[in-house]
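Quick one:
INPUT:
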């Protein structure tokens, strides 16, 4: 848990879009000042196709099979696809900005100086190797000096400053029942493997990972001065205590349930219910005034996990285990900023977990670190150089067209009553849209950075982040804030703000290309837009109203009809085997799968509205409908190492790309018509078994 960071402003998400038909929107005048589309001759790269595969048997491989057969993942990557290609491009662009700042002489205290010097300090490997473990010695000494429960809890309260993991912490957020108010929360963390399954599932695969994890812990502790026997014992104990924490964690499908994770308390109730902690003192140690804590509503996602965690913390017999635990998380978490030998040793466990064979180039890691620290300052320069205002205007028009398509879909729903349709349209009309970049950028005043010791800079960043979080907690809710930087290749929907957000970096081919065919843009960025809109009506987004308030605005009959259709989609996805013996979790991925399905349906409708009743031209022997679905499938072309895919199945609510294509199109009538899919084809579903929600 990031302590005192406002969590919940963004409801984590990514993309996809749609289908429908009604009268109206204007045809989008795609730009003509670019000589040709980025992908192929009209927006889709047909060289990736494998036409020996029938579209109705495997549309994913029909679209991208040749590429999938021929492309070899570079050793420094765990996955590669459209997102990754754009992320690489954005990273190159950000690197150029950072290097330019580093080559110039800027006055001390300017954000330009800070960005340039932070990059230099990260890249100074010679100095890092000279210093060895010395940069974190003061933190190691603080942990070693802990001799009491109170000192241990003080370290946990200051885990953000100390650079360690903690099994319990305090965070800030927005009140899902009143998004104009800020809340506090207590939560249990402390797991260093991706999901509780990695601790609790007894099979050969997870037993192997747990064995390698213990070796990794012992290896990291060796760099802190532990001898081999002590490190081995500590590793056994650390895994055991993390396993105890995992047993009380919610299952992954429960953790994304907006209703189950909304458990309000007063501060007095927190102190009474969880009396194993001296809350006023712990709050003060965390840098917050207890009076502020008393004035806020507390919302705790998993109350049943707190007392068991406190019991583990308060047990005197565990004091040394927790000290070992913090030492391990400090060393492992700092490895990328210390000397080369430790950095490589830590990476060895990453190879096991992700399959990545070699570390990415140091400059890429440095760019990620600096951009993560000064994201909005870099973003301000990024949009000036790489995001034309014409793209923003076109996106605004596309959003308007997709919104009207969603309205048409809602109006035509046979399973929804008029009463609920009115509320649904009210929510849709209230969507706020953010495109490209925020209205104002953070200035990072008060954060001191030099070109000297990297860890001095890291400590300054930690202190700055804590102070800013505490300050933000006491300010009014700012709805102009963004949850992503402009250079992020992604998009999201925030249920609390009822807004859809599209950073500049994703508004490029294959997602968006002003020079591409209209069918392609509707099948790509149109789907992304509609996907994010659909999140307002997925299994969790539908629980919030037009103002972002968590409440049930549904007619009970409509809710039952929605659940029936959602359960059909869960059942479909539960049957998809991503790895031998490892299936997609249809309940965990339901929100994104609804977003994908609704996205394609709504975007297709928007495309038809764009044509205004006319037939689109045939290009390269492909109809407009065919180009729409090819553009959609092109978004999810990608390769991933098996180890990384296993992590994704257990921790990422998005389905693998193959099923974001095949699992969706088989539910869309227009796809059957476009590609002549018939009974007997492997993806064929009878009309009555096709899931139709939005």
């Amino acid at each position: 848990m990031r302590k005192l960071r406002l969590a919940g402003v963004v409801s984590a998400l990514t993309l996809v879009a749609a289908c429908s038909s009604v009268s109206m929107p204007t045809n989008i005048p795609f730009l003509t000042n670019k000589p040709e589309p980025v992908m192929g001759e009209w927006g889709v790269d047909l060289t990736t196709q494998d036409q020996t595969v029938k579209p109705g048997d495997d549309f994913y491989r029909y679209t991208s099979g040749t590429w999938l057969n021929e492309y070899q993942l570079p050793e420094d990557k765990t996955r590669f696809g459209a997102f990754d290609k754009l992320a690489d491009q954005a990273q190159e662009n950000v690197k150029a900005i950072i290097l330019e700042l580093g080559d110039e002489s800027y006055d001390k205290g300017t954000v330009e100086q800070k960005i340039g010097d932070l990059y230099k300090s990260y890249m100074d490997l010679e100095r890092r190797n000279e210093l060895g473990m010395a940069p974190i010695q003061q933190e190691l000494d603080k942990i070693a000096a802990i001799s009491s429960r109170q000192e241990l809890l003080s370290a946990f309260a200051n885990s953000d400053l100390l650079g360690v993991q903690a099994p319990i912490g305090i965070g800030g957020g927005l009140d899902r029942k009143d998004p104009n108010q800020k809340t506090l929360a207590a939560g249990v963390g402390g797991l260093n493997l991706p999901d509780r399954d990695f601790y609790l599932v007894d099979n050969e695969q997870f037993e192997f990972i747990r064995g390698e994890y213990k070796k990794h812990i012992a290896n990291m502790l060796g760099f802190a001065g532990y001898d081999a026997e002590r490190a081995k014992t500590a590793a056994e104990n650390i895994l055991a205590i993390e396993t105890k924490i995992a047993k009380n964690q919610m299952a992954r499908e429960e953790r994304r349930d907006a209703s189950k994770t909304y458990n309000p308390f007063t501060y007095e109730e927190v102190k009474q219910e969880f009396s194993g902690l001296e809350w006023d003192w712990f709050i003060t140690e965390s840098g917050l005034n207890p009076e502020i804590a008393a004035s806020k509503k507390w919302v705790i996602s998993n109350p049943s996990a707190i007392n068991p965690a406190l019991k583990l913390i308060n047990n005197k017999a565990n004091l040394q285990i927790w000290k070992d635990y913090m030492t391990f998380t400090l060393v492992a978490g700092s490895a990328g900023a210390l000397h080369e030998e430790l950095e490589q040793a830590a990476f060895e466990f990453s190879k096991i977990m992700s399959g990545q064979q070699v570390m990415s180039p140091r400059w890429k890691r440095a760019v990620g670190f600096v951009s993560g620290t000064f994201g909005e300052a870099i973003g301000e320069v990024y949009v000036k150089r790489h995001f034309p205002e014409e793209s923003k205007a076109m996106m605004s028009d596309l959003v308007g067209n997709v919104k009207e398509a969603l309205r048409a879909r809602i109006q035509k729903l046979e399973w929804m009553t008029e009463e609920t349709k009115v509320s649904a349209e009210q929510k849709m009309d209230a969507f706020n849209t953010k495109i490209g970049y925020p209205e104002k950028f953070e200035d990072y005043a008060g954060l001191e950075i030099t070109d000297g010791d990297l860890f001095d800079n890291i400590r300054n960043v930690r202190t700055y982040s804590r102070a800013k979080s505490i300050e933000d907690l006491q300010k009014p809710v700012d709805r102009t804030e963004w949850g992503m930087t402009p250079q992020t290749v992604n998009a999201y929907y925030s249920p609390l703000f009822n807004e859809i957000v599209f950073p500049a970096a994703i508004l490029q081919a294959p997602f968006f290309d002003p020079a591409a065919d209209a069918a392609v843009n509707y099948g790509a960025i149109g789907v992304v837009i509609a996907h994010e809109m659909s999140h307002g009506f997925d299994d969790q987004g539908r629980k919030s109203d037009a103002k972002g308030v968590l409440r049930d605005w549904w007619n009970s009959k409509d809710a039952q009809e929605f659940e029936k259709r959602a359960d059909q989609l869960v059942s479909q996805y539960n049957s998809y085997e991503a790895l031998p013996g490892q299936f997609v979790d249809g309940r965990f991925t339901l929100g994104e799968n609804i977003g994908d399905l609704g996205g394609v349906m709504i975007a297709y409708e928007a495309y038809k509205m764009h044509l205004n009743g006319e037939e689109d031209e045939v290009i390269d022997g492909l109809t407009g409908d065919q180009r729409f679905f090819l553009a959609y499938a092109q978004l999810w072309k990608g390769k991933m190492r098996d180890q990384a895919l296993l992590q994704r199945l257990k921790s990422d609510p998005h389905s693998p790309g193959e099923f974001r294509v095949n699992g969706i199109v088989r539910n869309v009538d227009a796809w059957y018509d476009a590609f002549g899919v018939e009974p007997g084809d492997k993806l064929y579903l009878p009309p009555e078994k096709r899931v139709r929600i939005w």
